[in-house]
Write a structure and sequence with these properties.
Layout: H1 5-31, H2 36-47, H3 50-82, H4 84-113, E1 124-130, H5 141-150, E2 154-168, E3 174-181, H6 185-189, E4 195-196, E5 211-215, H7 216-223, E6 233-236, E7 239-247, E8 263-266, E9 285-290, H8 296-313, H9 315-318, E10 322-327, H10 328-333, H11 336-368, H12 370-378, H13 383-417, H14 434-459, H15 464-470, H16 477-513, E11 523-529, H17 539-554, E12 559-565, E13 577-581, E14 594-601, H18 605-609, E15 613-616, E16 630-634, H19 635-642, E17 651-654, E18 661-667, E19 687-691, H20 697-703, E20 707-713, H21 720-731, E21 736-742, H22 743-750, H23 752-786, H24 788-796, H25 801-830, H26 846-872, H27 876-880
Parallel strand pairs: 3-8, 5-7, 14-19, 16-18
Antiparallel strand pairs: 1-9, 1-10, 2-3, 2-6, 2-9, 4-7, 5-8, 6-7, 11-20, 11-21, 12-20, 13-14, 13-17, 15-18, 16-19, 17-18
Helix pairs in contact: 1-2, 1-3, 3-13, 4-11, 4-13, 4-14, 5-8, 11-14, 11-16, 11-23, 12-15, 13-14, 16-23, 16-25, 16-26, 17-20, 23-26, 25-26
């Protein structure tokens, strides 16, 4: 084993000391008359074993090193205490840089680095049906049962489906968030109940006894956290479910929803008859746990075998239907990883700028201490010893800045949790933990060495006699060059950050100007749930109840127009459904059918959303269950399937009816997946509208548990939803309203991730701009002070004040422009990492690059102008006495 050079030299020195002791002891004994051999044996016996002597001496060396370290720390603290202004500025500067890094690392740690909070999380995967138009589509329940039975790669497989129940019999009726799950859902995830048990095999079968698991929140709010809750009943949609357990509040599966469910029910309790249909996905998705040693690639190959067998067994519905298998963590993170990495790189730039600023401060400070170091060196202190002293001081500064930065980070994390995007996965796991503390410590020590090393090395590049003659007042050109290099680096880093923030600002500006295909202002959406007793009522009675609710909403003051809807709202995403042309033979399987997004709405839907009618006409109140079946298509469907022909009067067959449906109109296309996604031809989906009241009796029965409502108001009224709720409950107290959200809020939510990254990048860029402007101001001020004598001579010899102004501004401008050029070149490469976050602007947008360069140049000139004005006011007589 090879030891470091310093250790080998130390051991050689220890060996020399031992041999010296032996020689002295042997010589003394020989002088007293002992034989040489006996004298050596006695000397060795008295001195003891060489190894023991070495180890003892090594311990002595260790204590000496500790003592020297403590001396350096004490001296460093004393010197920092003697310069409180410098210490405060340096610590605050570092606190901003380290605190920003710590806060963002907390987000990265909670979201990216921490493992999922389940046993053996790497074995967990998400399962979807791979369809021609949706690589991650929903799974039909019969297909899932075959997947579960025939696969050889999973130790467990389960499904989950979002739902909502009306809770009655416990005070005012309310809507609960729910999940239908298969029986081994919780065992796959390794979730232990806070009370009672989870589901067991067989309890998810159709016809099994109705049971439920409730969340810790409902247990506390409705049952007072009583342990007697087990066996009690909870009434959901008018049906009694026996409570068998309580799911702990720490459990979440945020990939399914940003809000935790209130209740879990076996999927066998779902009354939707379509769940038995092999061609219906119904927003069902799966999770699985891989067997030990099985890779995701092997699981995909195994599921390909299973789905190929199903395609041969059920060619009409399963042709081209595969299985999508993805790591749960990877799918959970999605696009979050890229924008967090960009932000982490950006905040690293802020720390580097802070370090450069403090390095400049230290460089100026060590100039004043040059005489001190020269005297210590002349008295025998080695350069390594003095450099170590300076690094100790810089590390102490960094640790103080790190401590304050950690405090700032903890405050900012608490504030950030309130503004984080609602769909940011694992946001609840963001906090300061041991890994964050270690990161802060490491980055503080690294920063201390980084900004302390250059000033420490520069200090000893001058001859001792020169320093002692100057009395420490002068400064070398090398030091000026070092400070100039620091300013150039600051400018370059600040420019890259400002360009990144500028690109994000332009992206959001473009997105907000995108026409979503509708007018979102003054549009409110919410859901209504009829009393559970209505579920078994005739379809005519359900339609009458919904018409009555719609009429009461329309009669509420402030309401301009209203429409019921059983489809998804714009910008909320949805699976598409099949259809085919009525004048063509019915395709043999679903994969050969056309597809479109379905909107089941009422006649005033276009008025509410202000979607333009391109041709034909829209639905009227006469288009009810007794009228001929009709549909309206968007211009994308018309273009994709009818080309330049007129689709009006053409007939299609939809998934909701085997009877032909006549197309009566064409409307404008709306953005369904996001303001930017429809620009991608792969994500452009045709859209199809059918009348709500023409839905079949089965759909009507399901609509009692939840029907969407969209309302356009005459103005911005924050109390409108409360007024609507009172109006509806006045007619039927058991009717539940829930989920109020404006369309502007939905649009803002779709842009939340970009808005969040823009805000952070803007904050980091502002910090960078502030620190770099302070940096260039400090350097120019320092250089003006150093050149006071020179400026006085120039003025005494006839130089004009404007000449001095040009001299100082020119010096600062050269540094700033050099940094800007380097920053522009760097940004051309680095901003390409942001391309997935950008929209409507390229990663090398010349307008952003040019505008930011001009802005930074202006700020640099302003920072230089203040010391330049001071230089203009120098009195030549006073300046000539300066030396």
């Amino acid at each position: 084993m090879r030891f470091p050079l310093w250790r080998r030299k130390r051991d050689e020195q220890l060996d020399d000391e031992i041999q010296s002791h032996l020689k002295m002891a042997k010589r003394d004994r020989i002088e007293r008359g002992e034989a040489p051999e006996e004298a050596e044996r006695t000397a060795r016996r008295e001195l003891g074993n060489e190894t023991l002597v070495k180890e003892t001496t090594r311990d002595t060396w260790g204590w000496m090193w500790l003592e020297v370290l403590f001396q350096d720390i004490r001296y460093g603290l004393r010197m920092l205490r003697k310069s409180p202004g410098f210490t405060i500025v340096a610590v605050l500067t570092l606190a901003l840089g380290i605190g920003a890094n710590t806060a963002l690392f907390s987000v990265v740690n909670g979201v990216l680095l921490n493992p999922l909070p389940y046993p053996e999380p790497d074995q967990l995967v998400l399962l979807h049906a791979s369809k021609p138009n949706f690589p991650n589509g929903s799974i039909s329940y019969p297909n899932f049962l075959d997947w579960q039975k025939d696969n050889q790669s999973f130790s467990g497989m389960a499904v989950v489906r979002g739902y909502s129940f009306s809770l009655t019999g416990m005070g005012e009726a309310e809507q609960l968030r729910a999940r239908f799950v298969s029986s081994d859902f919780f065992s796959i995830l390794g979730v232990k109940p806070a009370l009672g048990r989870t589901f067991v095999a067989g309890e998810d079968e159709f016809g099994a006894a109705p049971i439920a698991l409730i969340s810790a929140g409902i247990w506390s709010r409705k049952f007072g956290s009583s342990p007697d809750v087990l066996g009690k009943s909870i009434t959901l949609d008018g049906r009694s479910y026996a409570i068998v357990g309580v799911i702990p509040g720490s459990f979440s599966l945020s990939l399914l929803s940003s809000r935790a469910p209130d209740v879990y029910v076996p999927i066998g309790q779902w009354t939707n008859p379509s769940v038995h249909n092999r061609s219906a996905g119904l927003a069902i998705h799966g999770i699985g746990r891989l067997k030990p040693g099985v890779t995701i690639a092997q699981a995909r190959a195994d599921m390909q075998r299973v789905t190929d067998n199903l395609a041969r067994a059920y060619p009409n519905v399963n042709k081209a239907i595969g299985a999508s298998v993805h790591s749960m963590k990877e799918e959970l993170l999605g696009d979050v990883r890229s924008f967090l990495i960009v932000l982490l790189a950006a905040v690293g730039f802020v720390l580097m700028i802070a370090c450069v600023n403090v390095a400049n401060l230290l460089l100026a400070r060590t100039t004043a201490r040059s005489r001190e170091f020269a005297i210590r060196a002349s008295l025998g202190a080695g350069r390594a010893r003095l450099i170590r002293q300076l690094l100790t001081e810089s590390t102490l500064l960094a640790l103080a800045g790190g401590g304050l930065g950690l405090l700032l980070a903890s405050w900012s994390i608490q504030a950030a949790l309130g503004v984080l995007p609602s769909d940011l996965p694992r946001a609840g796991e963001i906090h300061v933990d041991t890994r964050v503390l270690l990161f802060t410590l490491a980055i503080s020590v690294f920063a201390g060495i980084l900004f302390g090393l250059a000033p420490a090395l520069r200090t000893f590049q001058r001859e001792l006699q020169e320093v002692l003659k100057q009395g420490g007042r002068g400064s070398t050109g090398a030091r000026h060059r070092a400070q100039g290099i620091f300013v150039v680096v600051e400018m370059a880093l600040a420019l890259v950050l400002l360009i990144g923030a500028g690109l994000m600002i332009r992206t959001l500006s473009h997105l907000w100007r995108v026409n979503p295909g509708f007018q979102p202002d003054h549009v409110l959406s919410f859901g209504i749930s009829l009393p559970p007793s209505m579920q078994k009522a005739p379809a005519g009675a359900i339609r009458a109840a919904l018409r009555d609710a719609e009429a009461r909403i329309a009669a509420t003051p402030g309401v301009q127009s209203v429409s019921l809807s059983s489809g998804s709202l714009p910008l909320s995403g949805e699976d598409d459904g099949p259809f085919y042309m009525a004048d063509q033979p019915k395709p043999k399987n679903l994969s050969e059918m056309n597809s479109a997004l379905y909107y089941v709405v009422e006649p005033d839907y276009l008025k509410v959303m202000q979607i333009p009618l391109k041709s034909g006409w829209f639905f009227t109140p006469r288009d009810d269950e007794r009228a001929p079946l009709i549909a309206v298509v968007d211009d994308v469907l018309a273009r994709q399937y009818f080309g330049k022909g007129n689709p009006i009067g053409k007939r299609i067959v939809t998934q909701n009816s085997d009877q032909p449906v006549e197309i009566i109109g064409v409307v404008g296309h709306i953005k369904q997946w996001g303001l930017d996604t429809d620009d991608d031809p792969q994500q452009l989906r045709a859209q199809l509208y059918t009348p709500f009241m023409q839905s079949d009796d089965g759909v009507m029965a399901l609509s009692t548990t939840g029907t969407g409502v969209v309302v356009r108001s005459t103005g911005a009224d924050p109390q409108l939803f409360d007024s609507l709720r009172r109006a509806l409950q006045a007619s039927n107290p058991k009717l539940v309203t829930y989920g109020a959200q404006t369309m502007n809020e939905i649009i803002a939510a779709s842009l939340a991730a970009r808005s969040f990254s823009m805000i952070l990048l803007s904050i980091f860029a502002a910090l960078a701009l502030l620190l770099s402007s302070i940096g260039i101001y400090g350097v120019i001020s320092y250089l003006v002070g150093q050149r006071t004598h020179e400026i006085g001579i120039r003025l005494a010899l006839g130089a004009q004040r404007l000449d001095v102004l040009r001299l100082v501004l020119g010096q600062g401008t050269k540094l700033a422009l050099l940094g800007i050029v380097i920053g522009l070149v760097s940004a051309l490469g680095l901003t390409r990492l942001m391309h997935t976050l950008l929209y409507g602007v390229s990663a090398t947008d010349p307008l952003t690059f040019g505008g930011v360069a001009v802005l930074l140049t202006g700020v640099a000139l302003l920072a230089c102008y203040i010391p330049a004005r001071r230089a203009m006011r120098v009195d030549p007589v006073v300046a000539l006495r300066h030396e």
